[in-house]
Amino acid sequence: MTARLFHVPLSPFCRKVRLSLGEKKIEVELVEERYWEQDPDFLRRNPAGKVPVLRLDGIMMSESAAICEYIEETRPEAPLLPSDPVQRLEVRRLVSWFDDKFHHEVTSKLLYERVNKKVTKQGYPDSKNVKAGAKAIKYHLDYMTWLLDHRRWLAGDVMTLADFAAAAHLSSLDYISDVDWNRSAVVKDWYAKIKSRPAFRSILADQVPGFPPPKQYNNLDF
Amino acid sequence: MTARLFHVPLSPFCRKVRLSLGEKKIEVELVEERYWEQDPDFLRRNPAGKVPVLRLDGIMMSESAAICEYIEETRPEAPLLPSDPVQRLEVRRLVSWFDDKFHHEVTSKLLYERVNKKVTKQGYPDSKNVKAGAKAIKYHLDYMTWLLDHRRWLAGDVMTLADFAAAAHLSSLDYISDVDWNRSAVVKDWYAKIKSRPAFRSILADQVPGFPPPKQYNNLDF
Q1: I want to staple B62 with a disulfide (CB 3.0 to 4.6 A). Which of A110, B46, B55, B161 is the partner?
Q2: B135-148 pLDDT, tens per residue?
């Protein structure tokens, strides 16, 4: 049975799972889920009412952190977590950094205001939030710059889930032109490297009706 | 070198780490951290500016999910994660349920409004939020009831991190009398079991100035 992912294209949590699946060469059928309509069938799949929901190995899975750990444990080839506990700690710390802090300070204030509110018919962007998000992303890009000045990838010398978590958020924001790639050459180089991976292809092909992506979005030499 | 935890007493994320440390019999020195003052020393320990921060094995650690996985990987005795990947998935799904959904819908709307706002001098509780939190906790207690009708512990037949995540949130809310234990006998029994573990002792001894705990808080036969 093919894996099936219930998702929305610009969700960074769905994208992180798609990147993990892609890197592990697990084929997956993508099904767009209008999770905000809280359809009873969907709530049966995930009572938390959120995407991503992944059907894999005959199991219906939710929560992106739990899903990525499961994929890693059952498909250890092309590892996205190092074997050393201290390095694993650093990877997981950074995954939480992006999925919690960056999500709260940036993604929810830019992407959710500009796109999700319109798609789910919840009104207009709140300019106070947009302004706060636009300010906060600078600090986060600077933090990434600091990390990448010391390391080849965000959590160390190899590419990990931390890079996918970060790239998932930044790629969704890049879709709405909210990332200033000129702020940091090392961050831009890092993103160019990750963007050129085969796992990234389906993400660069995403299209959200009413929101055409800008030219640089799927350009590998942006 | 003794382990040292920078924490605040009622933070559910700190409590989850304390419960993990306690269950593994790792002695820890507790240091209260006024994280909201964003002291430069503290920001050096954790640039995310949040608690918990744990010094263990000579490393400064942040993000409770990453910390608990590290403890589990380096101290596998008294396991808090089962060995089967599907069961681990369920444990991690529920940890995220409480640390994300429950936190957002309940803890932040009750505990943060009633206590954190006062402690950090951010004004008065917003009654709209308090009302929403008081409503949402009922749904969550019902979900726990449904789980515990089918299982001995939240994620299956053994006690896991999922139980500690849930107990961390509920115990903090119980400190301000925001849990209606009469709503569900199975949830009350579950909480009595977990409350009587030695790992819970330090949590039941917590005192927050200006917020004396109610009588049932540290009563094992509540």
Answers
A1: B46
A2: 999 999 999 999 99
For residue range A87-99, what is the model confidence (pLDDT) as tens digits? 999 999 999 999 9
pLDDT class for B221, splitting at 50, 70, 90?
confident
B59/chain A closest Cα distance in angstroms: 8
CATH 3.30.70.20 fits B3-74, yes or no: no
- Cα–Cα dist A39/A155, whole Å: 38
Tokens in use for B173?
A: 């809310």
The minimum CA-CA distance between B73 and chain A, rounded to whole Å, is: 7
**Under 8 Å between Cβ of B203 and B194:** no
pLDDT, averaged across chain A:
96
Does ipTM surpass 0.90 in this model? yes
> Do B59 and A89 lie within an 8 Å CB cutoff?
yes
In this complex, do B101 and A65 lie within 8 Å of one another by their Cβ atoms? no
A85-198: CATH, from 1.20.1050.10, 2.60.40.10, 3.40.720.10, 3.30.160.20 = 1.20.1050.10
